Amino acid sequence: MSTKNFLLTLCLFTICVANAQIKTAKHIKSKQNYNAYLFVYFTGNGNEQEAIRFAISKDGLNYYALNNSEPVLSSKKISSTGGVRDPHILRGQDGKTFYMVATDMVASNGWDSNRAMVLLKSNDLINWTSTIVNIQKKFPGQDSLLRVWAPQTIYDEKAGKYMIYWAMKYGKEPDKIYYAYANKDFTDLETAPKQLLFTPDNGAAIDGDILQKDGKNYLFFKTENAKVAGIKVAVSDSLTGTYKVGDSYVQQTTNPVEGGGTFKLNDGSGYILMYDVYTKGRYQFTKSKDLNHFTVIDDNVSMNFHPRHGTVMPITTAEVERLAAKWLSTDDVVRTTSNPAIKKININLDTAAQMLTLPVGLGTNLAKFDPLFVQFPGVNISPKGPQDFTRGAVNYNLQIAGGKAKTYQVRVVVNNNPLFGGLYADPEVLYSHKTNKYYVYPTSDGFNNWSGSYFKIFSSPDLVQWKDEGVILNLVKDVSWAKSNAWAPTIIEKKINGQYKYFYYFCAAQKVGVAVADDPAGPFVDSGKPLLSKRPTGVHGGQEIDPDVFEDPVSGKDYLYWGNGYMAVAELNKDMISIDTTTTKVITPDETFREGTEVAYRKGKYYFMWSEDDTRSPNYKVRYGYADSPTGKIIIPGNNIVIEKDTVQGIYATGHNSVLNIPGTHDWYIIYHRFNRPDGIKMGEAAGYNREVCIDKLFFNKDGTIQEVKPTLQGVTKPQLPQAKN
């Protein structure tokens, strides 16, 4: 073989080997086993909240905060403003380099205060380098630039570079989505910004997120039009080409949303679109197989933190182990129980005593109970499987990635308080003679500043086992005169012309409305206008809220009570959907009255109960008085507290109650709300919209006065069934 042919053969061989290596590298990357997820997010407005936080998940639906919910990076060290928001994370093309970008901004400086973004890079998800890119300083002609929002990164295969895209606003122009390419080291932008998305109406567009599927680029973004705002999808065959904007919105809520983020599930079952329902203080998750049709899956999602505008990236076993070794504590792991019998929002961990208390409902088999701790890679938990908790606490040993083992005493206790899972307040209770069931009608809680917009109902045959019957009235869909602040309902069952009717009085937009149904579980139809929208004559403060309906067993008349800051009463007309305004009377008992009137009749006395203080206060409590008629005068006993906090048990803000007499018996119960236990007391004023519904026995003394109720964790300890009248 000639030297020339040998060199040619060698060259061809080298090229083949190189191509084979490239193909092998791509093959390895495509086959990389992702079996967990990393959620990158911030938590709110304020320097401590405007920072990057991490959480991990095994299934992409249930997430657990790392680093005890504290930031994993110092905002002061990586930003020019002292805060970062809207973090986005991307795995690099080599499969082992990671890129993050974030808005360099502190909200307290104003929404038009930032001109920069932060670029970050890491090889291990733990250690990050960062640089600040100030668009206004870097590129000429940026004098009218007002803000730089929500950057994200994607690899442009055609250009062979990482593309960053984000929203900017110039002067009086609307926000628009731009793009530029990062330099090789991912420390700067090497090209000037160009507009990426052109909307047909030239409307505002922010919070862009691109997901690639079947050779197409799906750009999810939020519109900011004056009349309509929400998430739309624009599709393009080219990453920087022309995007065609779809007609419909894809968010599955009528509430305002922002920060849409998408990711593909590791099991191949579809895609997740999640977004920040920021007026409600929560996230919503939806699932899709085609990126056109989305189904809400919130019932399958849980988080032990409250994220704002973040992104999710699939990760490997080795990466989970690395993150766990750095930022996951055994205290975090021991809280990750997934047994559905556990009331998860009431799990209590005493870190000093290393005691974990898991509350469950009546009927749970404690002899063979498995807490089902989430098994993250690199985390060892023993024992495994069902254990016998009838004899007390069981010791569990936990060890993370070869670190020091820690032993926890885990006990499982039967606590029927709260009555049902989730956050609810202002409970109204009804026994239906039509269905022979009990019903609780609460305020849907857990929304910032009491901003819920729908009402749910729970039913029970015995006050022990409760069933979620779903939404019975949605202000947005079912009520024309109000769309927000769905609060404090009350209901009455009436038999009219041989047929049962249900009249449901509720608060909306600080007014009182009424809806009617033929069944205690609905559907309810709104009357079409507020029943009460003005203060009574002579009242100059307070709100028209917290109705209570009462049928006087002596006269047969029906009364409606209401008021915040004052207690008013009026007779209902025979139609039950209007009041006789000539009978309106203000009967405020004393200076302790705040809200939440509840009226009951027992042995010739009319009992009036009300809540004192503010629902955000740990001292929120119930007081009472009594009268000889349903309209007063109210007599107040010397000690008139019905129920109040018990700090020893960690029970706070026990208020806004209703009462129930078990049919055919002399047994009475009080249904009320309290701060979420154990975390509510740590929330400050936010505890006032993170409440839960409880029940306890109510006792009367021989003279008719009410014994003060000691709130319990146990609640109803055996089924309560109505009896024949005695």
Automatic annotation (TrEMBL):
This is Sucrose-6-phosphate hydrolase SacC (GH32 family). It comes from the Bacteria. The keyword Secreted does not apply. Keywords: Carbohydrate metabolism, Glycosidase, Hydrolase, Polysaccharide degradation, Signal, Xylan degradation. InterPro entries: Glyco_hydro_43 (IPR006710), Glyco_hydro_beta-prop_sf (IPR023296), Glycosyl_Hydrlase_43_Enz (IPR052176). GO terms for molecular function: hydrolase activity. Belongs to the glycosyl hydrolase 43 family. Residues 1-20 form the signal peptide. SUPFAM superfamilies: Arabinanase/levansucrase/invertase (SSF75005).
